Amino acid sequence: MTYHLYSHNDLDGVSCGILAKLAYGESAEVRYNSVQGLDFQVERFLEQKKPDDALIITDLSVHTENEIRLEEFFKKGGYIQLLDHHKTALHFNDYKWATVKVEYEDGRLASASSILYDYLQEKNVLKRTEALDLFIDLVRQWDTWEWDKNQTINAKRLNDLFYMLSIEEFEERMMERLQKDEPFSFDNFEEKILDMEDSKIERYIHRKRRELIQIDIDNHCVGVVHAESYHSELGNVIGKDTPHLDYIAILNVGGRKISYRTIHDHIDVSEIAKQYGGGGHAKAAGSAITEEAFKLFIINAFPLVPLRIDAPRNQKNLKKANGGSLYTDHGDHYYLIYPEATDRWILKKDKETINSYQTFEEAERHLKRTFQAWLVRDDVYEKYIKQKA
C-alpha cells in the first residue's frame, strides 16, 4: 500500500511528513501544501487513485465539496485519515475517518504532529523513542505557543532552524537524528547559525515595531504591520509591548496572507480569521487577504501614522510613578496618569480630568486606545514639570 500524506508546509506539518517517512519508509509519498493548495491535491488524488492508495491529511482540512467526496471514498472502502488540531475543523469529528483534537485530557494543547505520533503508535508502525518524544513535544509547544509560557527556548530555535533550511535539508537532518537512539539536540553548526539568527530576528522586530499602525476594526483595537518573515515572534513581541491592542494583524501582501496574533485570553483570533475565510487557533490564526480584508487592513490603515514607542530608558518619567506618568500624542496634547489614593488613578488631558480608574493599567489602556499616546522622554517630562511649577 502507498500512503499519500498531504500536510501543511510549516514546522508542524513538515514534522508530520517526517513521522510518516519514519513509519512507512519508501511506501510514504509526502506532499506539503499551503492552506489554499490542499483541495487541489485532494481532487487530483481522488481522480488518479489506485486500489492500494491510502490518503492521510494532517494539519489541514478540506472544503465542503471535498469533504463530501472523501466521505464517498471512505464508504466505498477507501483508506482515508484526517488528523487536525484546529478549532475550526472540529466538525470533521462527525466522520469516522477524521480525528480533530484541540486539547489533551491533561490540559496540553495538541498539534498535528503529536496527534499523528499517537496514531502511528496505535497502528504499531512507529515505535516511541526518547528522541521522538522530545522532538514532537518541541514542535507541539512551538505550534501551540506553549513554549512562551514554559520558556522552552529550544522549541523556538527548532522553528528558526526550520525556516533557515530548505524543507528537504531539514527533513534529512531530522530523520538522521531521530533514527539514532540518542536524546534530541542541535549540533554545533546549528547552534552557531541559530545564535546569528537570534540577533537578526531582534533587529527585524525592532524595525517593524516602528511601522505599527493602530486602527479600530469591528469593535477591536488592532495593530497592523506589514512583514514577510518571523510572524510568530513579531506578533508575540509586539503584543507584549502593546497590551492595549486586542490583536496584531501581520500582512504579507506578496503572499496575499494575513497572520493574526494575540496575547489575550478573551480574544479568539481564529474567529477573526474565519470572517475572511481562514482559521487557526485562539491565539494564532491566518487567512487570505480577501477584498474586504484588503479594504479594512490596508486601504483604511494606509493614511494613518505609525504608533510611537514609549520612551525606553527613562529614569524619572516611569510608569506607575507616585508623581505621575507623562504621555503625549500626535496633537501635542499632554496626558498625566497619577495616583489619587491607594485604589484610584486619575487620567488628565492637559488641564482637564478625563476619568478615574481602579488600576494604572486600566488608565493607560484607555489612554492608548483612545488617543494613541506614548510615554515621553525624561527631558520632556522635566520641562513639563518646571513649566507646571
Q: What's a quick, concise take on this entry?
A:
The chain has 389 residues and is α/β, with parallel strands linked by helices. The chain has helices at 11-24, 38-48, 64-75, 112-122, 130-144, 146-150, 153-164, 167-178, 188-209, 231-241, 269-274, 291-299, 360-371, 378-388, and strands at 2-8, 28-33, 53-58, 79-84, 98-100, 213-217, 220-226, 247-252, 257-261, 279-280, 284-288, 325-328, 334-341, 344-349, 352-357, 374-375.
Protein described:
- With 389 residues, the protein is of the alpha/beta class.
- It is 42% helix and 22% strand.
- The strands form three sheets. Strands 6-7-8-9-11-10 form a six-stranded mixed sheet. Strands 2-1-3-4-5 form a five-stranded parallel sheet, sandwiched between helices.
- The N and C termini lie far apart (84 Å).
